[in-house]
Structures are given as C-alpha cells and as structure tokens.
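Lecture 7 notes: from sequence to structure.
We start with the chain below.
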Amino acid sequence: MTIFQKPENTTDIIYALSPVVYTIYSANNTNADFEYLLEVRVWNGNSASVPASASYTLSKLPNASGSASFDISGLIRSNLERQLPDNITTSTSQIVDAIEESAWVQVLATYRDSTGGTPTQATSQTLLAVRGYTDPYQGFNGSNSDKSTLSQTMTIDYASNLPMSISVITDDVKYIDVTTASYTHRIDLTGKNTALSTEAYVSVLCGTNWYGGNGIGIHQHLWSTDGATIENISCAGAYLTDGGSYTITTKDSSETTIETMTISSQCELKYTQSVIGYLNKFGAYDYIPATLVKTESASFTRQRFQNKNATTGINSATYDVTASTYRTFNTQGRQSITINTGYQEEEIRDRIEQMLMSEEIFMYDTTHGTRPLSASDSSVRFQLQESDKLINYQLQFDIANDLRNVVTI
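Predicted structure tokens for the same chain:
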C-alpha cells in the first residue's frame, strides 16, 4: 500500500481552503470486491498524541489506474474553529493549550476485499493544518513561499488608538522586536521549537482601546511550539503612547534582521478611526486601516398583501376608512458601509486582495465596537504610485446582520 499526498512532506503546512489530496494505491486492486479505505484523524494538542480511532473513514472503488484519490480539505475545515483574537490580559505569559484555529492531520490507508486476509496499511506523515489557502499556480496545496504578511520593508498607516496586526512565520525567527522611539518590546522565541517542520505563526497585535486599558498589547498565536503542541500565548505591556509609530523587526539567532515593517499612526483625525480585520491566506488575523471618511447607508425590501377590512352587520356593511387596504409584512433591512483606507504604500494591495478573499471580515471602531462584514465589491483595481500618486482604496461592505434581530435556529 502506498500513499501519495499533497502537501508532500513535513516542511509544508496544510492550507485547508485549498485541495488536500491523498492518492492511495495497492497492487491488490484487482481482487474481487476490492475497496479502498482512508481513515482520517484530526486532533489538537501534541502532534505525537494520535487518536486511537479515526475521525472519518472514507471508501472508494479503484479508478482506471487502480488507485483512488481523496480530497479531505472539507473534513479538515469542519474541525477548524474561527474566533476573533482573544482578549489581551495583563499577564506577561498566559498559555492556553489546544486552541482550535489549527489542527494536526494524519491519514491511514488500507483496503478490504473478499479474500479474507489481513490487508496492508500505510500511514501518512503528520502535518499541521490551518484555515488558509495557496495560489493556483502553486498546484494542489503548494508550499507558500511568502509565509507572512511581513514579507517586505514597507510603511503602513494605521488608525490612531486602534489595533494593527501582522502575521510572522517563525521559521528561523528567534526574536520579534517591536520598537518605538523610546522603547523596545521583545518577543523571545528562543525557547520554542520553531523548526520548519513544526513551523508556527505569530500574530503581533499592537493597539489600544480594543482590549481595554491604556497599554499596548502584543498578541501571539503560536500554532506549534514546545513538544509540537498547539498553544496560544498572550501578553501585554504599556510601551506605546497614543499617536506614536513603531517598527516590527524579525531577527534570527545571531540577531541579524530578517524582515522589517514600520507602522505609523494616521495623523488625519478628522474622521472616526476604524480598522477592518480579516482572516488572511495563512489562516491568521490581519488588519487594514480605514482612516478617512466612511459613509453608511441602508436598503430595504418588503412584501405587501391586500387586506380585506370590510365588516358586516345584520342589515349593513361598512369598513374602517382609516385602515390600510395594503398591509406590509416580511420587511428586511441591510446596512452597507463604504470605507477609505487612507493613503498607503503600494504593498498594501496584497492585504486588500486577501481581505476581499477572506471568509471572515469584521470592522472595529470606538463608536460601534466590532461588527461583522461581508465584502460587496466584485472587483478592485490595484493602484500604483506611478500612475495614481497617493494611494487610497475605497471599499464597500454589507453589515453581515439584518437590521431586524432575527435569529435562525
């Protein structure tokens, strides 16, 4: 029995929004009543703690080549829960095991036939799965070469007093420095297992007011750490004053800089400051600013029926002249919002693209708090400084709730 898998080796992460294909083959496929079986195991916690029983068992008859292919991406996605970033606490190290934003995956291939013998088995490698995707030109679940949004030196403006975030792949990264004019906060990963085979993402969230208090928080999602156990780590520190700017730098064990991003507060405070959060292509949370004017509107649909409002007595008929002849029922209302990102560098286009592709988008501002969004833009033109000079994206969304509070059960 042989297993061919995409992704192909332990240096890859499974991106569960792309196809995850396992092809299995046995030379016994011509036996009578032959049928392939694929046992799929999906779990959290330590990578070595493989469940004794399968989460799913799939079966398929051999194809013309004598093999069978299974795409298990949908099964993996059903085990990956999505949640907004957890509240930052004042604790300097808070660890919660077994978060379900990622999971370990392993399959076991076997078969059954009418011979009554003991079938051969083959077990795949154990891989880490996240709710991300790879590009079509990379093939089935290819390995992302651009493994974080911190992929180039750039400056991005963010809304003052609101959070901004980046995701960083921990491969080769031992330190993440968040630096202001007078202070450096270091995230030390030297004690963590950050080898490529157990790679992790760190979501670095910097901002105020969202989580309460006056401090700035660093929020870390480490998806694979000591002992290959999935963990979530949060810490907080008050080091960035309102209206400041900061630089996020990744460094290797010799403290050589790998990548750098500078994040500056938007100096135009005329409008209500907002951010748009989204689940990016790596399955981590990122944010884009919405610092200039935003407009809100609402649309309504309704159904009407003609009402019979005549009344009859023993010897007369009449009707209420003030009653409606037409009655309205089933009125639905949806709010929409148009935002402007403010003036940004060209490199923000990648964030814009990932945000419009995202399954989960939300907006935060100090007036309404967090509101879920669905993108209504069907296309976007990516802007260039050469032709567009100052780059500002105007994007349209629907608030992903009806105006009427109707709950579906």
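Points to note: DSSP finds three helices and 28 strands in the chain. The helical segments are 73-77, 348-357, 385-388.
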